[in-house]
Specification:
The protein is mainly beta. The N and C termini lie far apart (219 Å). It is built from two helices and 49 strands. It has a five-stranded antiparallel beta sheet with strand order 42-41-45-46-47, with no helix packed on it. A four-stranded mixed beta sheet has the order 4-1-8-6, with no helix packed on it. It is 1% helix and 54% strand. It has six domains: 101 residues, Immunoglobulin-like (Sandwich); 101 residues, Immunoglobulin-like (Sandwich), CATH 2.60.40; 94 residues, Immunoglobulin-like (Sandwich); 95 residues, Immunoglobulin-like (Sandwich); 98 residues, Sandwich (Immunoglobulin-like), CATH 2.60.40; 155 residues, no CATH class. The longest helix has 5 residues.
Length: 671
């Protein structure tokens, strides 16, 4: 036997030209040899590794990752590897060394700047992005986008030829602008060399406007059952989106065409559209392009009665001589009626010119029947104004109010005091309230037997009421004749109302001084037959008897048939019917309060009858020793005969009747 001879192989790594940043870079080696020997060695620059106990033979040393993109490559540097390959171990030279050297040399790089310029384009194109692709050595490719005035710098480019291409410049491409032609310059191949490694590609897009023209058409279609309600307008104005308008009507078959329109604007094709004014009662049901002619628009309007609207206007006219009376109201409320039902109100005045309009009113009801709109007005409270006419023209109603000066009347209120009123009654103030049925009310004060006239009163019925509480006098009972009277004023004439106050002295029962009348009631003293014994004088104990001269027997008075007393007054002061009694035998009997209310002295009684005749009787009231006052006849006159026989007047004083004859007496006893 003979001992096998073994060898050794030392692998050493050397690096030159590498940047300092790569000082710790590791390199991998594969060593293969006889008998399928294979091992991997990893070394840094300057390191070595010895493989021992190797069979003699040929060994191959290979550095891994030296190919393009491999681990041994350093970006920006060119790699040259030496010292690798086959190493043979022999018996005489069995220890070998393989020194593998990586020699790096820095690459020479260039740059390429691409700029974009746009000319002649519309304003919108200056913000447009243009896309580029640059290709070059070693499968280089880069894409990017630029706007007008922008640039892109490509660096670290290997020397060589690069191609700059603007994309989308072909017909209908992204770089094209409608209405313009495009000419591109500055693109193509650019070569980078060691002596000219930085280049620029200035790509310019020059646009030229074509000024292409077009035309558009409009066709109006009415879907309204051949204008069944007559609401289709005689013409219709339609407006193109550029502001041009055309008028459609029957004469042009409701169609029109607009020519010589720009086809493009700002690089885009102009889309023309049509609009129309609102048509009452119609809605635009469709607006479509004609399938056979895209430039033609067909607009269809469909009739809808429920959407038809109208308006109602009211105007107020005043026929009042420019408000000469100064009574015209400052405003007036008017009412809008729809088929007689109020639906709205308006206030007319000087500020709105006495006119108002209500818009957006339905013209038809659900049954397609046309509504009737009318106007009415509030009642004018100013007397003299009246609605004279309401004329209608189309949708305008004119309400004319005429002023006629009202007929005004007057009312005289007279205060009368019946005979027997106390002295205080003549000086006190009487208060009255006057009211009308139209809201009129006022107060009137009258002193004593005075009067007051109310002028300029509307024609109306007025009620005159005296305040009886303030008219009361202590010791007297007040009765008022005609209080609360109503007076109708129906003309310009003056009407009169007389309200009479009668004061009755409160009577207290006093015992009869003769002792013959315990009840305190005096006999009437009236002769039943209407006669007195002639020449008889009253007894001195009778303080209420009349003294008369002896004479012939007084005939029994008789009255004419149907002759009645209208009124009785004493000293021109009316005597209330409550204070006298008309006797069947023709006498008039006064109450005791009436006589006792008279002053001492001569008085005159006037009796008026319904046939116009009158009789006047004079008498005198004198004091007496008894209670009350006595009356003495002084004379009489008559404007007409009451009866053929001598009539007489009976005056009851203190319940004792005293007869005063019609015939004049020449003697009287005042005692």
């Amino acid at each position: 036997y003979s001992e096998d001879v073994k060898g050794s192989l030392t692998v050493t790594k050397t690096v030159t030209g590498a940047p300092a940043s790569e000082a710790n870079k590791t390199f991998e080696f594969t060593v293969t040899g006889p008998n399928n020997y294979s091992t991997t060695v990893t070394l840094k620059a300057g390191e070595s590794q010895t493989l021992t106990d190797l069979a003699l033979g040929t060994y191959t040393v290979t550095e891994n990752g030296t190919a393009a993109g491999g681990a041994a490559q350093i970006s920006g540097y060119t790699l040259a590897v030496s010292g690798e390959g086959d190493v043979e171990l022999t018996a005489t030279d069995k220890a070998k060394t393989a020194t593998v050297t990586n020699a790096y040399s820095e690459d020479v790089k260039g740059s390429l700047t691409v700029t974009k310029t746009v000319t002649g384009a519309p304003a919108s194109a200056f913000d447009k992005e243009f896309e580029f692709t640059v290709t070059g050595p070693n499968n280089y490719s880069e894409s990017f986008k630029l706007k007008n005035g922008e640039s892109k710098v490509l660096i670290d480019l290997a020397l060589g030829t690069y191609t700059v291409t603007e994309n989308g410049t072909a017909a209908n491409g992204a770089a094209q602008i409608k209405g313009y032609t495009l000419a591109v310059s500055g693109d193509g191949d650019v070569t980078l060399t060691a002596s000219d490694k930085d280049k620029t590609s200035a790509v310019t897009n020059a646009y030229t406007e074509t000024n292409e023209k077009t035309s558009v058409s409009i066709q109006k279609v009415w879907d309204d059952n051949n204008n069944q309600n007559g609401d289709r307008p005689a013409s219709l104005t339609v407006t193109l989106s550029n502001g041009q308008s055309v008028v459609l009507n029957d004469s042009n078959a409701w169609s029109a065409t607009v020519d010589d329109l720009p086809k493009y604007e700002n690089g885009s094709e102009i889309v023309y559209s049509w609009s129309e004014e609102q048509v009452q009662g119609y809605r635009m049901s469709s607006s479509v392009k004609d399938q056979n002619d895209p430039s033609k628009t067909i607009i269809t309007n469909t009739y809808d009665a429920s959407s038809v609207q109208t308006s109602a206007t009211v105007k107020k006219v005043w026929d009042d001589n420019n408000d000469a009376a100064g009574l015209r109201p400052s405003s007036l409320v008017v009412y809008l009626l729809q088929n007689g039902t109020q639906i709205d109100t308006c206030t007319l005045n000087e500020q709105n010119g006495w006119t108002a309009t209500v818009n957006n009113l339905a013209k038809y009801d659900a049954t397609n029947a046309e509504y009737v709109y009318s106007w009415t007005e509030e009642t004018i409270t100013v007397t003299g104004y009246a609605l004279e006419s309401a004329t209608v023209s189309d949708t305008t109603t004119t309400l004319t109010n005429k002023y006629t000066a009202p007929v005004l009347g007057s009312l005289k209120i007279k205060k009368a005091l019946a005979a027997g009123a106390p002295t205080d009654a003549s000086s006190m103030t009487y208060h009255f309230t006057v009211t009308g049925t139209k809201g009129y009310t006022t107060t009137v004060d009258i002193q004593g037997e005075g009067e007051f006239v109310l002028d300029n009163l509307e024609l109306d019925t007025y009620t005159i009421t005296e305040d009886t509480a303030s008219a009361a006098i202590s010791g007297y009972t007040l009765s008022v004749t005609n209080n609360g009277a109503t007076v109708v004023i129906n003309s310009a004439n003056q009407e009169e109302c007389v309200i009479t106050n009668t004061y009755k002295k409160d009577v207290q029962t006093t015992p009869d001084p003769t002792g013959t009348n315990p009840t305190g009631t005096e006999p009437t003293g009236t002769e039943p037959t209407g006669t007195k014994p002639s020449g008889t004088k009253p007894s001195v104990e009778s303080p209420y008897s009349e003294v008369q001269e002896p004479s012939e027997t007084t005939p029994t008075p008789t009255t004419a048939p149907d002759k009645k007393i209208d009124s009785v007054s004493i000293d021109d002061k009316p005597v209330s019917p409550d204070d006298f009694t008309e006797k069947p035998d023709g006498t008039v009997e006064f109450s005791s309060n009436t006589i006792e209310g008279l002053t001492l002295g001569v008085h005159r009684a006037l009796i008026k009858y319904n046939d116009g005749t009158t009789i006047t009787i004079e008498f005198e009231v004198v004091s007496s020793a008894g209670r009350g006052r006595s009356i003495v006849k002084t004379g009489d006159t008559a404007k007409s005969n009451l009866v053929p026989a001598a009539a007489f007047l009976s005056i009851a004083v203190g319940a004792v009747a005293i007869v005063i004859f019609r015939r004049r007496r020449t003697e009287r006893d005042a005692k």
